[in-house]
Structures
1.
Amino acid sequence: MSELLWLHITSGRGPAECQLAVTKLALVLQKEAVKRGLACEVLETVEGDARGALLSALLSLEGEGASDFALKNRGSVLWVCPSPLRPTHKRKNWFVGVEALAPLDTGNTALRVSDVTFEAMRASGPGGQHVNKTESAVRATHKPTGLVATAREERSQAMNKKLALARLAGLLAAGETAARRHAEHDRWAQHDALERGKPIRTFEGAAFRERR
């Protein structure tokens, strides 16, 4: 049975070394997904402070076993490596976070589609020929709480609607009722919590090889 999920990899407020780790981890997860027979596409990347570094990357996963792959990679990931950007820097541990988003399961969520209003928008930002030609982006608003989630990364409005609903369900599940006022603070706080937790995977060195 084919499944659809998204993986969001973020450096949070980490330095450029964490952003390099995002770039390396995105490549690793892409290769692993393809090996498992999944369709994997980079939907969006946000450039970081150094060349080749990314603040975040959003991947789409589709195929049988996508949910299992995504959930196994959800959490914090540690990269142990002397800084390739600051040779005299003492720190060697760099953390990034991975979040999994799944399409809305109407039978297992507090979010009801009837409580959500959708607004189509023109896509903006990265996307090449798909940008500004169709109103494929979607803004989803949860009427009871006022929470808002947008999606513009997918190429069709139908897919962006699914992604926006997944993000909205995630906000509700996390109890972020003050997300409109504290979205940035909450995101960084979540990243800090990931750093203190036990990493689900650890990679080492410039070659980004996994520790076994």
2.
Amino acid sequence: MEIQLITKANETRFFDYVHGRECEFFYYIYDYKTHFPDFQLFVATNNLNETKGAFFILKNQYVKIEGTSDATACFLHFLDDLKLNLKIITAQRKHKTQIKNHYSNYLKDTERYRMILQNQKELFSCKYESTSLGVHQKEHIASLFRKSDPVHFSKSNASEIQLDDTHKAFGIIENNILTSAITAWNYNRIGKINTLGTHPDYLRQGRAKSLLKYTINWLSSCTDHIIIQVRAQNTAAIHLYEQLGFKIQFQHYLMYF
């Protein structure tokens, strides 16, 4: 197999490969469109010039792999020749053993679910009033995320929060306090809910659910599918998303170094 770097000149090869499977390859598309300066996207082609897989490297630390077993083996050998400060490899569950056999020095592994809400038509009613957040509130949003989940959002900072025509942030503000916030993105009729957090002093009062409903209402007006990613062990969040109509469609395995 041959590894090809995807650039603006040949990106149609990648988009032809993922056509009709945009939800499956959404994070490839998302990172390609959002982080292109720090992002390298590759495909593997066989001797018939057929695309058999795709993978990307982000910031020389994060790798994501999808494709056939042969393509995955090709990608892994390609990575061996690079000098990466590797932190995470993400792949489909079917490649878990293949990757673990290749990398025996990993520290831990975990699993995430990609849940999808399709063709939401009925608008949800919301218990709390939500409002759109602006660029001047980025630090407030990042601070809230750090407080809401110090383990996973401890490094959240304002510079990573994008706000523009397609990237939005919504929040619930009470007595001048941002009690809950969410970020979301829409691209090519697919919406993505990025981060949802509630201040520890305001938990279990329905704010997160209300804000999630508000965001779904917004995304439903401009998308056909809404994606959310959740840790497999976060059963409470999974239950909430299922109540709102999300279904688990993809399972991904993450290896940490």
3.
Amino acid sequence: MDGRADASDLELLRAHVDGDRQAFAELFHRHRDRLWAVALRTLGDREEAADALQDALLNAHRAAARFRGDSAVTTWLHRIVVNACLDRIRRRQAHPTVPLPDGNRAGDGSGTGGIEPVAPAPDHDTALVVREALAALPLEQRAALVLVDVQGYPVAEVARILGVAEGTVKSRCARGRARLAVLLGHLRPAGTSPPSARPDPPGPTGEVPGVTPGNPGLAEGVGSGSGRFRRDANQEDT
């Protein structure tokens, strides 16, 4: 057993830059579940998510030498994964296809397609409806909601991952929740009112049903990595 298991994320990244061929693999192994969950929730399709995650890891592998060290490695990795997902969504919108919403190519609801590994929903049909509703949101709202409501990251960290102000994250989440409250209103039991657990601006704030926040713990301090996402910072949600 070597010392990689005891090394910090930053030490592993630097070791990778210095030529250690196993260091990046160890880094990915540590964070793959969280990165996979973000990709899957954002894209809503297992094959698309797998491809996006692979693209992101290749980008991170090649760009490691440019990592400045002024942010947590996990924040940097998440930013690259989110950007890879949004790039795929933009390409998909430019060249529309007809993907299966749950990414299950077998079509029978069995096997690995369907429930996510990090935050499984108890009801498969409800999970599919929720995933389709998330897919109907504008890109910026979807990315913010996946990170805040689904994965459980603090708003401050999400702001640094997305490269926007905290107020922008809160606004996108509030608007996304309002849209989901409309799209998923039929799932609410009769006679109940929408939950409003989060202190966001007034309006419907129905929590995503059938989904539990994944990994509520915070990994490390946060900061800015790649600046690619900032091109979206000034795009106001409608």
